[in-house]
């Protein structure tokens, strides 16, 4: 039993990666830097700005509802990443750790987490609309598609869980 605890679990590693991505790149400090210093008209600039998508902030000047909805999206990205990493069968079906199915399951979990986090957070706006929900889900899925490979890499080599 003691030797098993040395190995990371795929859902735990992927969730930790998601948490660090949101904590670091969703921070107001990163957002201030990227908005003032990075040209969004380049590929790298667009990607660096996209990293800030699940932004969180603590600003006393904003309405409580605005702060909660913004932070809710960031929280939901992390929580839903864990949920989807547990539910997606790619890493469950992989016989060997470090296979492409683990990578793709981690990546897909982050795409789904971004899309659903945006959709659920959109429900808390004062006038949610179908078009707004679709746009929000689209931006979350775009974030997951272009950033989720990092979570996919983090899940590589992890065991499935206690039953693995």
UniProtKB/TrEMBL annotation:
The entry's keywords: Membrane, Transmembrane, Transmembrane helix
Annotated TM spans: 12-30, 72-91, 103-125, 140-158
Domain of life of the organism encoding this protein: Bacteria
Protein name: Uncharacterized protein
């Amino acid at each position: 039993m003691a030797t098993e605890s040395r190995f990371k679990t795929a859902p735990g590693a992927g969730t930790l990666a998601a948490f660090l991505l949101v904590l670091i790149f969703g921070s107001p400090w990163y957002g201030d830097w990227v908005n003032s210093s990075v040209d969004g008209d380049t590929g790298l600039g667009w990607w660096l700005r996209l990293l800030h998508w699940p932004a969180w902030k603590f600003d006393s000047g904003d309405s409580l509802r605005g702060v909660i909805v913004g932070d809710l999206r960031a929280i939901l990205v992390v929580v839903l990443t864990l949920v989807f990493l547990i539910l997606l069968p790619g890493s469950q079906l992989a016989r060997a750790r470090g296979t492409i199915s683990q990578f793709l399951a981690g990546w897909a979990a982050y795409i789904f987490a971004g899309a659903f986090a945006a959709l659920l957070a959109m429900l808390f706006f004062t006038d949610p609309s179908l078009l707004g929900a679709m746009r929000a889900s689209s931006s979350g899925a775009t974030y997951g598609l272009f950033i989720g490979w990092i979570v996919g890499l983090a899940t590589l080599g992890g065991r499935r869980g206690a039953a693995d």
